[in-house]
Amino acid sequence: MFDLKIDTTSKPEMYADLVSAARGLVEGERDPVANMANIAALIWHTLPDLNWAGFYRYHGSELVLGPFQGKPACIRIPIGSGVCGTAAATRLTQCVSDVHAFPGHIACDAASRSEIVVPIVRDERLVGVLDLDSPLPGRFDAQDVAGLETVIEAIAKSLTQAE
Ligand code: SME
């Protein structure tokens, strides 16, 4: 079993450790679902104040629920809908401090108050999104955006179906 404990004092340090741990977890493994499962668990056990952490995969013309930690969630999200569908459509990270103020937010867990969604793009193709929810308003800031984008960039290849 992997030791997931990351002890750090600052967010940038924590994300630097998270990037290293994420790289280590996916090293040598090309199954994207297995890798998404381990990364969701790593994030869930590393970042405080989350109530959902996981992936939606781009499949056909929509996002389909992938490996996650937290309560059961909506299975299919059209591109352009909600926070996840907006991140997928724009290919830009969505950092939402108050989900109730986000037009079209899809409430999978009523406890969610803030959310961050990072698109996963490889070779200019959309692979899916990483979605984190928090019960705290304003839980995510620019350091979380930068840190999570770095994590995703570092492991995007391992989250992509081998051709
Ligand atoms: N809130 C998301 C839906 C996914 S759940 O948060 C797990 C959205 O608006 O796209």
In short:
The chain has 163 residues and is an alpha+beta fold. The protein is built from 4 helices and 6 strands, in the order H-H-E-E-E-H-E-E-E-H.
Helix-strand layout with pairing:
Elements: H1 11-26, H2 32-46, E1 52-59, E2 62-70, E3 76-78, H3 82-90, E4 94-96, E5 114-122, E6 125-134, H4 142-155
Antiparallel strand pairs: 1-2, 1-6, 2-3, 4-5, 5-6
The structure holds methionine sulfoxide.
Methionine sulfoxide is lined by residues 52, 73-74, 77, 82-85, 105-106, 108, 112, 115, 131, 133.
Explain the overall architecture.
It is a single chain. The chain has 163 residues and is of the alpha+beta class. Helix content is 33%, strand content 26%. The chain has 4 helices and 6 strands. The chain has helices spanning 11-26, 32-46, 82-90, 142-155, and strands spanning 52-59, 62-70, 76-78, 94-96, 114-122, 125-134. Strands 3-2-1-6-5-4 form a 6-stranded antiparallel beta sheet, with helices on both faces. Helix 1 runs antiparallel to helix 2 (32-46) and helix 1 (11-26) runs parallel beside helix 4 (142-155). The chain is globular. The termini are far apart. The relative contact order is 0.19. The structure holds methionine sulfoxide. Residues 52, 73-74, 77, 82-85, 105-106, 108, 112, 115, 131, 133 line the site of methionine sulfoxide.
